[in-house]
Each structure stands twice: as structure tokens, then as C-alpha cells.
Design goal:
InterPro entries: Aminoglycoside_PTrfase, Kinase-like_dom_sf, Pseudomonas-type_ThrB. With 338 residues, the protein is of the alpha+beta class. It contains 13 helices and ten strands. The protein is 46% helix and 16% strand.
């Protein structure tokens, strides 16, 4: 951070709050409401509390312009409703505005911001520093993830025409990836560039061989990190389907380890998740052996994300996240064949 009085993050948050204030006007039952920022990363997410006698809470998401089209957001919401209808997974559902649409368009300057109001779900994110609880929770998460993938396989015909992102090697680590190039991440030295290029090449070769069979590739959440999970008692709810798209089912698991891939307890989380997943859905030994590949692909993607975004999370992680990736990269090259 420079000493300049101008803070781009603060300016962005001010703009998004103004947009959120306009968006709530699209819902007649929110004539009196309080808006509080919950998170700002790809989008700005707000807690909206009705100040009338109901005091009900809602979640408002203000989408970043250029990230999704209106049709893509509508497809995400269609999937959410399908999950709610055809599975036991607890998700946050969209709410119709005064115009009987789920996606409200708020114009700010020359840009359109797509805003969606969701039902509020109780719960809190898993604690990454509570290893014992996290291991237990990952078994439940494995079951939920398998249920999600079973839902996709069983409803493939109705979901295959969804207009959503693709999350494969090209869009994650290729020449023009969706979240930026890892080569442009923080603290990428010449030595790291050489190391990570070897990792990326091995990932590509293994995934080319792994293939995209319909039993291992389809519509996925693609961002099931701890911040997008809500724990209430023994139940885990899944939120923020903003990045859902087509990719490998195992990539969903890799995203659950986002930002904690280097932690010593990760092998225990893997074992616990596999135990839960296999209660619902078969997973071959070949697929299990590919888990390190998906973890490394996600890790490099996060280096790119940190280097190309400016929010509280990226500022907190900084170049230290890259530093802690070296050991993972060397271990992957050492223990993974081509």
C-alpha cells in the first residue's frame, strides 16, 4: 500500500454500496432496510435486514461488471432451484423482484451491474484453525459434494445447455485464464517461474490423460472453499454458486482446500472427505490418485487471483501465499509421474 490518500479499494466499496442501495429498491418489501457489507471479492455481498416488523434478513449480491452475462446469472439461479428441488442440499435461493425477475439490472455510469437477492441461511464458516472439527466437517462435506455430483449426473440432460463458465486447464492455467495468469502473481522470481512451469506442464499432461468422461466432468460449484460453507450444528449448507460452471468433479474438492493447501492436516482432510464422498458415490483409485493434480492446479490459480485482485483477502495473503507454494510444488513434482 502506498501512502497516498487515494485507496482504490475504498472507492470501489463506496460505489458498490451505492449500487446495492439502488438494488434494494427493486423489492417492494424492502422499503425500509439496513445494508451491511459481508464480503468483497469477485462481487460485493451484503446482508440486508428488513427494518419493518418482520426483521427478516436477506443476502444481496452485486455482480462485478463483465464477469457474467445476465443469461449466465439466470442459469446459475436455475441450477440452484434444481438443487433445492431434487436434492437434500441446503442452498440459498433467489427472490423475485417487483418486475418478476430474479436478476435486477442497476446501471452505474456506462456499466450494468447484475444484482440478485437471496434467502438468508443461518450458520458460520468452518474454522481453518480447528483441526479436529474440520476433519469431521470434511466427511460431511464429502457426502454433500457427492450428492451435488449425483444430482448433476442424474439431471445431465436438463443441465447440459446451461450457459456457464468452463473450468478446465485452458481457462485456469492456459494462456488467457479467467482469473489471470499465475506468471503475473506476486513474488514470481525466475526460479519460481521455472519451478511452476514444470508443475503446470505436468498438470496438463496428467489431465489430458485423465480425460473428461461424464462421470468425472460436468457442472460443478467450483468454489467450495470454507468461506462458501455454512455450518449449523451437524449440517453444512453451500452458498455462493457465482463461479459454478463445467469442470472436473474433483476440482470441487480442490477448491475446498483453497488457501489451506499447505497445512499439515490436509492429508487428514483428504481421507475424511473421501470417506464421506464414497458413502454416496463411487470414486476410483485412479481418480483418488489425481487429487494432488487438482490441488496444485487450484493453488496456481489462486496465485493468479491474488496477483490480479485488490480486496482484503488478497492484501492479507500477499506474497506469503506464493512463498508457501514452493514446498507443495516440489513435492508434487517429486511424487507425481507423467
Amino acid at each position: 500500500m502506498s501512502n497516498s490518500s487515494v485507496d482504490p479499494l475504498k472507492d470501489s466499496l463506496k460505489k458498490y454500496y451505492q449500487i446495492a442501495s439502488e438494488a434494494v429498491k427493486c423489492f417492494s418489501f424492502l422499503t425500509k432496510s439496513n445494508i451491511e457489507l459481508l464480503n468483497y471479492s469477485e462481487n460485493a455481498t451484503y446482508l440486508v435486514q428488513n427494518l419493518t416488523e418482520t426483521s427478516q434478513k436477506y443476502i444481496l449480491r452485486v455482480g462485478r461488471p463483465g464477469y457474467h452475462t445476465k443469461q449466465e446469472v439466470e442459469c446459475e439461479l436455475k441450477w440452484l432451484k434444481s438443487i433445492d428441488q431434487h436434492s437434500k442440499i441446503k442452498v440459498s435461493l433467489p427472490i423475485l423482484g417487483n418486475n418478476q425477475e430474479y436478476v435486477q439490472v442497476v446501471k452505474y455510469g456506462n456499466e450494468n451491474f447484475y444484482c440478485t437477492l437471496f434467502t438468508f441461511l443461518k450458520g458460520s464458516a468452518p474454522e481453518e484453525n480447528n483441526e479436529l472439527e474440520l476433519v469431521k466437517q470434511f466427511e460431511v462435506l464429502g457426502e454433500i459434494t457427492a450428492q451435488l455430483h449425483e444430482h448433476v449426473v442424474n439431471n445431465r440432460e436438463s443441465l447440459q445447455d446451461m450457459t456457464r463458465l468452463t473450468w478446465d486447464y485452458e481457462t485456469i492455467l492456459g494462456p488467457e485464464p479467467k482469473w489471470g495468469r499465475w506468471q503475473d502473481g506476486l513474488a514470481i522470481t525466475p526460479e519460481r517461474l521455472e519451478l511452476y512451469e514444470k508443475v503446470a506442464e505436468k498438470i496438463k499432461q496428467r489431465l489430458d490423460y485423465f480425460g473428461k468422461d461424464h462421470n468425472r466432468y460436468g457442472l460443478i460449484h467450483s468454489d467450495m472453499r470454507l468461506a462458501n460453507l455454512l455450518v449449523e450444528g451437524d449440517e453444512i449448507k453451500v452458498i455462493d454458486f457465482d463461479d459454478c460452471g463445467f469442470g472436473w468433479f474433483l476440482y470441487d474438492f480442490a477448491t475446498s482446500l483453497s488457501f489451506i493447501e499447505h497445512k499439515a492436516y490436509v492429508p487428514s482432510l483428504i481421507s475424511s472427505w473421501l470417506k464421506g464422498y464414497r458413502k454416496i458415490r463411487a470414486l476410483s483409485v485412479e481418480e483418488e490418485q489425481e487429487i494432488p493434480t487438482f490441488i496444485m492446479m487450484r493453488r496456481l490459480q489462486l496465485i493468479a487471483w491474488i496477483g490480479s485482485r485488490d480486496n482484503e483477502t488478497t492484501r492479507e495473503l500477499g506474497s506469503g501465499f506464493t512463498d508457501e507454494t514452493d514446498a507443495l510444488a516440489k513435492k508434487y513434482l517429486e511424487h507425481t509421474t507423467i
